[in-house]
Structures are given as structure tokens and as C-alpha cells.
Design goal:
- This protein is of the alpha/beta class.
- It is built from 6 helices and 16 strands.
- Strands 1-2-9-8-7-10-11-12 form an 8-stranded mixed sheet, with helices on both faces.
- About 45% of the residues are buried.
């Protein structure tokens, strides 16, 4: 039985000095080990000032387009045209994937379906038989976090399907949340005592996964988050959490679930426009009426009563170049996770060197467009330049 430990994370620049997060025992990082075969392992090598963008392209019918070249795109950085240096679609580049699962009472009705769907996703994305002693060498790896009143790393990076399936099967609410009444979102004094109403520490989970688990990894990185999108009790704010993901070059795919609902069968995918969609749905890009983001935009405040969790989940996906899905009923989850695996495997990786060096750590807004008008491009909205402590 693996032993779970606890530790305190210091968040630099926050008014709160410490955030307690429960995490599982760390597994050794084996990503630099030799592969289990004589075949060369494809790696992604970057220069310090290079920018890497994961890019997904679909046509107007929502079909992935996988035969494009860098000459098919136009890229700008802060409005200035850029030269695309590299543009690859290589299935051998390893993925680093994090599964973040909300285990609070608000989504408990879908937990069995979520375990099954996430387990199927693991089987699609991870190798079937990792070699003993060489787990994850040159292969896709995944980790598992659940969050409610606490954020808990159940399994660190591994290529073992068996280990992840075991943790998914055993996953449930933390002890402090088992009596959670899902009262109103904590504010003011309650925010310093999250035990009072339980919690759903969505933003803390994103921060931990991005800053502590993903930031040191290279290659293609993605988080898949299952939640109702309403944060209760996090120490970090929405913008700080998403900034951490952007700094770690992590694309986030969100799966929104808010109980059984009488909606259509569309899952927020191209063509149907639920949860943002693509054509006509304000995704990617576009934002929300008034130009702001839920939670107050950059520098905005914590969750408040009446927050729209669906918009929060859409915001997280848009800003990081992922995709927002809407599970109208728990039976949708398996299909959604299949669509996510399809999209991840259909990614391009674009690299370029900005024409103007920036060592102050500022945020740079980028725009990537396909030269063919019928193609829809999804990538992250920008990047943080190396160095300095900056906010957008």
C-alpha cells in the first residue's frame, strides 16, 4: 500500500503564506531513462527563448485536419508577424497528462461513470505493457489528483494502467468532505476556515498540478478536469491558477457536469455549439460579453455566490488552448473522454523564436490563424516570457 503524505506549499506573491495540500508519495522521475527497446525515442528539444504551442485544427464540420504545413498558418506575437520555426505532427512525442477529478458531493452522482470514463481514457493514452524498471521511458505518462475540501495527488507520473485503475477505483471524497453539505461558497472569514462548509478546491488543484507536477516536464502536456466548475475554499484565484498552467505550457481540457439535465445530445463539440462549441460558439477566443472573464478577469476575486461554473470551465479551456466539454448526463462521459484522446493525438506542435527578446517575464498575446478560412485553430492565448514575476 502506498503511503500518502502531507506537505505545505508556499505560494509566492500571495497574501496567504501557506496552503496545505495532501499529496501522494512521489515516484521517481524516470523520464530521462533509456527506452525499453532499441528504437530511438522522439524528444522535443527547445532553446531557452523558443515558444512551443500545441495546436489543434478542425474543419467547419468538426473533423480533425492532420495534413497541414507551417506555411498554412499566420502567427503574430503582440501584433507583430512571426516566423514559424517548427511545425510537427509526431505521434511518437510523449504526452504528460494529468487527470483532475472533483470528488465533492455536487458531482457524486456521476462518480462511477467518471471512474469508468477516465479508466477508458487511460487505456487509450498509455502503453499496454511498460517494461519493468523502465516505467514511462519515452512513453506517455499520467497522474491522478482528486479534489474537494483537500487536493490529493493519488498517483504521481506513471505509465502503469494498473496503478491508475486501482487509484480510480478507490478514489472518493476526502475524509473532511464526507460530511460536506455543499453549502454556499466560502467568502471572507469562512475562506480562512474551509472546514466549515467543506469545499471544492478546483483552483488549488490546477495550481498544484501545473506548478508542482507539470512545470519541470517537457513535451506535450495536458490536464483533463472533471468538475461542476464552482470553486469553494481555494487559496489561489482563478487567474493565478490559469497563469500557472500557462507558465507550465499546459493545455487544459474541461469536462463540465452539473447533475442530470434535460438538454440535447451535443457535448460541446464542433457543430453543436453547446459549451462554446467552435463555429459560432465563441470558442476559441472571443471571451464573454463585456470582455471580462468569470471571477473578475485578470486580477479578479475568488468565487462568489451564483458563479457560473460552466463559464469558468470554458474560460480555463480557452485560455490554455484546450477544449471545454459539457456532459449533460453521466452517460456522455465516456464519449467525451474518447473525443479528448482523439484531439490530443491530433495535435500539432508549433515552435517559434520571438522577434523581440523579453527577459522581464511579461505576458505576450499571440494569434495563430489558418490561411484557409474554413479551418478552426485552437491553441493557447499567449505565453509568459522567461524571467521575472509578471501577471497579465
Amino acid at each position: 500500500m502506498r503511503i500518502r503524505t502531507t506537505f505545505l506549499l508556499a505560494f509566492v506573491g500571495l497574501s496567504c503564506s501557506l496552503l496545505s495540500l495532501r499529496v501522494g508519495a512521489q515516484q521517481p522521475d524516470t523520464s530521462a531513462q533509456s527506452p525499453e527497446s532499441d528504437k530511438p525515442v522522439t524528444t522535443l528539444k527547445m532553446q531557452v527563448n523558443e515558444v512551443v504551442l500545441p495546436v489543434t485544427v478542425r474543419d467547419k464540420h468538426g473533423v480533425l485536419v492532420n495534413d497541414l504545413q507551417k506555411s498554412d498558418f499566420t502567427l503574430t506575437d503582440e501584433g507583430r508577424p512571426q516566423t514559424i520555426k517548427g511545425f510537427t505532427h509526431d505521434p511518437n512525442l510523449p504526452f504528460r497528462i494529468g487527470l483532475l477529478v472533483d470528488t465533492s458531493r455536487s458531482v457524486s452522482g456521476a462518480m462511477d461513470a467518471e471512474r469508468k470514463a477516465a479508466g477508458g481514457f487511460v487505456d487509450l493514452m498509455l502503453p499496454e505493457q511498460p517494461a519493468a524498471g523502465k516505467e514511462g521511458a519515452g512513453k506517455n505518462q499520467a497522474f491522478l489528483i482528486h479534489f474537494d475540501h483537500q487536493v490529493e495527488l493519488l498517483e504521481d507520473f506513471t505509465s502503469s494502467r494498473e496503478r491508475l485503475h486501482q487509484d480510480l477505483d478507490a478514489m472518493g471524497p476526502s475524509r473532511a468532505s464526507q460530511n460536506d453539505t455543499q453549502g454556499p461558497e466560502t467568502t471572507g472569514e469562512d475562506r480562512e476556515r474551509p472546514n466549515r462548509h467543506g469545499g471544492t478546491q478546483l483552483y488549488d488543484a490546477i495550481f498544484l498540478a501545473s506548478d508542482e507536477v507539470m512545470s519541470s516536464k517537457e513535451g506535450r502536456k495536458a490536464l483533463i478536469i472533471f468538475s461542476d466548475g464552482v470553486d469553494r475554499g481555494s487559496k489561489v484565484r482563478l487567474n493565478e491558477a490559469v497563469d500557472a498552467a500557462e507558465k507550465a505550457n499546459v493545455a487544459i481540457y474541461t469536462v463540465y457536469f452539473k447533475g442530470e439535465q434535460e438538454h440535447g445530445d451535443n457535448l460541446g463539440f464542433p457543430g453543436g455549439h453547446h459549451g462554446g462549441g467552435y463555429p459560432g460558439g465563441g470558442y476559441p477566443g472571443g471571451g464573454y460579453p463585456g470582455g471580462g472573464y468569470p471571477g473578475g478577469g485578470r486580477g479578479g476575486g475568488p468565487s462568489e455566490t451564483g458563479v457560473d461554473g460552466k463559464k469558468i470551465m470554458l474560460t480555463i479551456a480557452e485560455r490554455t488552448g484546450g477544449h471545454a466539454f459539457d456532459a449533460h448526463k453521466k452517460e456522455d462521459l465516456q464519449e467525451i473522454y474518447k473525443l479528448i484522446s482523439e484531439e490530443l493525438r491530433g495535435q500539432y506542435l508549433l515552435t517559434y523564436t520571438p522577434d523581440k527578446p523579453d527577459t522581464d517575464g511579461g505576458f505576450h498575446k499571440i494569434s495563430l490563424k489558418a490561411n484557409k478560412p474554413d479551418l478552426i485553430v485552437a491553441t493557447r492565448e499567449g505565453y509568459f516570457a522567461p524571467g521575472g514575476e509578471a501577471s497579465k
